[in-house]
Amino acid sequence: MVTGTLSKPVKFYSEWHDPHGRIRPHYTALARATEDLGTEALSQRWNTASRQVELDAVTFYLDPGSYRAMPTDFLPRVIPVEHWESIAAGVSQRLRAINRFLLDLYNDGQEVVPDEVIYTSQYFYPEVQGFRPPKDLFVHIYGIDLVHLGDGRYMVLEDNLRIPSGISYQLKSVGMADAIFPEFSEEYDILPYDIRDAYLGMFRSLTDNPEPVCVLLTDGKYGSAFFEHRYLSDLLGIPLVEGPDLYVGPDGHVYARTLDQDVQVDVIYRRVEDLDLFVPGLREAYLDGKVALVNGIGTGAADDKLVFLWVPQMIESYLGEAPVLEQAHSYNLADMDSRRHVMENLESLVIKTRQGYGGLGVFVMPDLGESYKARVANNILQNPLMFIAQETLDFSQHMVFNGDTARLEPHHIDLRVFAVQSGDGSVSVFPGGLTRVAQSGSRITNNSSGGLCKPTWVVR
């Protein structure tokens, strides 16, 4: 079913097969395990695993009134440790540079990104100017989206800084694959990691209280990522709270309501955007230094897809280093020469809105019809500062099990890697990450666009 060679040439880089159609060495044991299971047993266990996803309520909120079980492909992605070492170094480097940039932006004034770009960003908050967050860190939890172009060359697509999501799906998919398909990992030495200790250690590093009171602030059961909020609350052993559970007291501190007596909160792991809508006065309490927020207010200024263009310069300016990871070549459409080039080559590019998220506002022009292309072009000409253009990348594909045909099929994949920076400046990058899988024929991997997730290993 999966061993041997491919009969047709591979157009895109295949994680599973080499250019001659042979299974790559780090996938040989996994291919053998699936072959030994056989089609019938593999299909039966696959159905069991898919049902378990539903029973465990591993879901995301698709649209008003509609939850969807997270579609999962349980055939793991295998990343060789030599690839991972450069990924981890590059992720740590970007996070450290971005935090230095944000501190400079809101205090001494930065000279890396043009003012026109900063001041037109939806997520630049003037009221944060002059504020130094606890330990001078704005971003504590970081998600970065990468694609693999082949032979260990990983390219950054974007940084996720405001409310990075998806780590629960990373953990859950790996755990379920281990439980239901133990044969898959028998011959592998997989790098371990512990996000619980890293998260809790980071929380403690942001306050002088040796035993800080930490809570996770959710927008409630109808929020798009409520499964993740609940999962992380349980994993970290911290209360899951909604807006009415918190209030800002007369002394400016934040308190949590309890059955016995109200408790002062030291750290809020926030999973909501508009803080004052959920807890009136919370923004002011943070800016007055009365509570630590993870992540801080104002991080979105570096989350902006146009600001992304200047991250390599941030690394060079603040760290004095060359970037470890390449990033997709991007164009500032407010620049006349860049805009002219983009309009002349529109059919070969990807267009993104500056503030888009979750696959929304992403237009892969080679995959669009003519009328849609014309609409995108018109929108760019009307408001060029609100878009960026990126080169279209032929990124890698991975085998996905098709339950209907009981066959393996190639689909495009990306990788969201998560990292934490603590108050002492140290960075923990969690091995593996969340591999996201596009639908057949698509390059958009977000779950809101029909994508799947896949367990991911880093192997020695």
Quick structural summary:
With 460 residues, the chain is of the alpha+beta class.
Please give a structural write-up.
The protein is α+β, with helices and mostly antiparallel strands. It folds into two domains: 263 residues, no CATH class; 63 residues, Dna Ligase, domain 1 (2-Layer Sandwich), CATH 3.30.1490. It has twelve helices and 23 strands. Strands 4, 5, 13, 18, 19, 20, 21 and 22 form an eight-stranded mixed sheet that branches. It has a four-stranded parallel sheet with strand order 7-6-11-12. A four-stranded antiparallel sheet has the order 14-17-15-16, covered by helices on one side. A hairpin with a 5-residue loop joins β19 and β20. The protein is globular, with a radius of gyration of 23 Å. 44% of the residues are buried.
